[in-house]
Amino acid sequence: PAEPEIIPLKPLGKATIVRLRSLKELLTNPPFCPNMSRESHSTAILGQTLHQRVSSCRVLMVGAGGIGCELLKNLVLSGFKNIEVVSANPVDLDTIDLSNLNRQFLFQKQHIKKSKAHVAKESALRFNPSVNIVSHHANIKDKEFSIEWFKGFDLVLNALDNLDARRYVNMMCLAADVPLVESGTTGYLGQAYVIKKDVTECFDCSPKETPKTYPVCTIRSTPSAPIHCIVWAKSYLFSQLFGNAEEDDEDAFEKETSDENVQELEALARETEELKKIEDAIGTDSYAKKVFDKIFTRDIERLLTMDEMWKNRSPPKPLFFDELEQSMASTDSNGAGGLKDQHIWSIRDNFDMFKDSLQRLSSRLIDAKKESEKNVLVFDKDDDDAMDFVTAASNLRSANFRIALKSRFDVKSMAGNIIPAIATTNAVIAGIVVMQAYKILNGQLSETKRVRTQYTYLKQVTRRPGLLVLEQNSEPQPHCAVCRTTNIALKIDVHHTTLKFLIDNILVASAESGGFGMSEEVTIVEGERLLYDIEFDDNVNKTLEELGLDDGKVVNIKDDNVDDDNGVNLVLQHAASATLKNDALFEISGPTRKPVPESLGKRKREEEDEPTNDAKKATLGEVSPHAVPTQSANGVIELNDDETTLDEDGRTVKVWVLEDD
């Protein structure tokens, strides 16, 4: 072959040489230098001081779902070196589900059914192996995550979709005095904001929407919206046919005590008994017809006999098995141009799907019963058989009551209580959370700089420019029962200390004796559980341990003689007497209890019950010149003078020393 022609290069011009030298200099220096450290970018952006704070701080991230995946990725790429991740769901402890994979990018198909916290850690370390990540596959409300544990973090980042867990983390961060960045998304909307004790409002300062429940009478007799029919199909019909009939989804029904609701509950029980009689036909060819005739024909005909019920509303119409079986299959489907699950089935399509899914679920139940008579089927939004059944049954009931039909996609969203989630929204909010964390570590969170950590909203596109809306954080609400309650740490031996000792020697003891100076009419509550009040003293001789008040528990104490008082939260920390300073029986540390404003109506005590001027000075965190009287197993004991010391955080701690005579 002919040799290739060699074309000589033209001499480079001076301008080209200058440009090449500039390019070489650019590529051999940060940020393109291959030898530069991973932190060079964040150091250049944040500055040496803030970067050092970021890399040395300890961060707790609660939740590892949609926002959590984006947030953990951001943290490991933004200079954070010490991160702990905890699940929060008290039911399944946040395990990975198939429906998570479209937006929670740290998870893949092989991770299904595994712990979100553990897998998120493994995936995030691939972005930055030098980060120290500790993952916990546990409920954040477990006793191992105590107040002292929360105090070990510089800030807490919430990535939760669970209302109860959010409230709990909010309370623990307030008690531990640790800044919390709260966040959440719904579809295209989202928000992120900082919660700091005595600086901003807390999560519970404003009321939150509670899960929707529906009156039984509406669900059973007068549905008027698709959600009513979906709740009926999922929480009543499915559980009666395939689940435990005695354990309906109680959260779905509103348990009113009105006469109408009581009558409906009784009627519901009668219908349940009728369905039980049909159970003998399960697995036979006639089973589908018997169930259909019962719920879509005879039950509706029975409702039509109640003339008063239909004076001001359209009466329902029964459906007939034979008529639908002889009808032509529909060739038209609403939404045919979209995804399959977004099609709205015709009445005949729903009828066919009802029979088919009923047969599939019946076969599964029969097989499960062969292994154990106690086995039942449980509704799961990701169970195709269950979703086919609930979609078909709810749409047939909608047809009974002339209500618009819904696609399988819509039914799944409502039946599974699915909040629409978009990966881009999660990514935006996760980025804002990190920006808020930077501000906290940069010292921009204080009463005078509250505006620096603004409440940030992400909104949908509107005529007004901008998708992010900034709003100044509100101050704590004065009547909030969570953040306006004083939190006091109590170190005590929970194994041997009785509730009576707590009442007599800490709560009711006068201020001059170092106690709280409450009246004898106190109420003691742990969560929603009443432990003691003036008319309920069954627990006074039980130890704190016997009452389930172990390390990390928070007990709310209220004086019934003080109006509108949020009381005091006692944060229990178990400590054997031998381990306390000077062998004391207990130690108390914490801020001075906030006085109740006169405007709130504090009741006037009798003059002889008023503490002396010296006693008024003996508030928590100050030196008290007196000891706390008590009685040991050996009889009367004398008390040494009180001593004060400083705890690990530099706060004044009162120590009572009790010695036998």
Give a description of the structure.
- The chain starts with 13 loop residues before the first helix and ends with a strand.
- Strand 14 (554-559) and strand 15 form a beta hairpin.
- Strands 3-2-1-4-5-6-9-10 form an eight-stranded mixed β-sheet, with helices on both faces. Strands 13-12-14-15-11-16-20-19 form an eight-stranded mixed β-sheet, with no helix packed on it. Strands 17-18-21 form a three-stranded antiparallel β-sheet, with no helix packed on it.
- It is an alpha/beta fold and 661 residues long.
- The chain has 18 helices and 21 strands.
- It folds into three domains: 46-209 and 422-471, 3-Layer(aba) Sandwich (Rossmann fold), CATH 3.40.50; 214-415, Ubiquitin activating enzymes (Uba3). Chain: B, domain 2 (Arc Repressor Mutant, subunit A); 486-660, Structural Genomics Hypothetical 15.5 Kd Protein In mrcA-pckA Intergenic Region, Chain A, CATH 3.10.290.20.
- It has helices at residues 14-27, 40-46, 48-56, 66-77, 116-127, 147-151, 163-176, 216-220, 226-242, 259-278, 287-304, 321-326, 347-371, 384-400, 408-415, 423-441, 499-507, 613-617, and strands spanning 58-62, 82-86, 132-136, 155-158, 180-186, 189-195, 214-215, 253-254, 455-458, 468-471, 486-492, 522-526, 529-532, 554-559, 568-574, 586-589, 631-632, 635-639, 643-646, 652-655, 658-660.
